[in-house]
């Protein structure tokens, strides 16, 4: 029902996942929604990551990225 690791390295991609251990997002203008994640690593520019439950540890080494809990 989940993945240990998911990596999205693209441009203008949309990703939806259930439970993820580690979510890695690189590239630019990607929009990713997960049900839950243990950690989120963001690189690149203008990526948006949101999660439905939990409080993942977020690392952001890119520019103009956003990470938040979905409403």
Helix-strand blueprint:
Layout: E1 2-11, E2 14-28, E3 31-42, E4 48-51, E5 57-60, E6 66-69
Parallel strand pairs: 1-2, 2-3, 3-4, 3-5, 4-6
What does this 3D model show about the protein?
The protein has 71 residues and is mainly beta. 0% of the residues lie in helices and 69% in strands. The protein has strands spanning 2-11, 14-28, 31-42, 48-51, 57-60, 66-69. Strands 1, 2, 3, 4, 5 and 6 form a 6-stranded parallel beta sheet that branches. The mean pLDDT is 96.
List its traits:
71 residues, mainly beta, 6-stranded parallel sheet, 69% strand
Offer a quick outline of the entry.
This protein has 71 residues and is mainly β. It contains no helices and six strands.
Low-confidence stretches: none
Q: Which class of secondary structure composition applies to the elements?
A: mainly beta
Radius of gyration: 10 Å
Terminal-residue CA separation = 22 Å
Q: What is the number of helical segments per DSSP (H or I, 4+ residues)?
A: 0
Number of strands: 6
> SSE order, as H and E?
EEEEEE
Main sheet specs: 6 strands, parallel
Portion in strands: over 45%
């Amino acid at each position: 029902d989940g993945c240990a690791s998911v990596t999205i390295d693209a441009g203008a991609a949309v990703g939806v996942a259930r439970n993820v251990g580690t979510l890695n997002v690189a590239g630019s203008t990607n929009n990713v929604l997960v049900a839950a994640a243990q950690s989120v690593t963001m690189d690149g520019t203008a990526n948006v990551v949101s999660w439905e439950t939990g409080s993942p540890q977020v690392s952001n080494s890119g520019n103009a990225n956003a990470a938040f809990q979905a409403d």
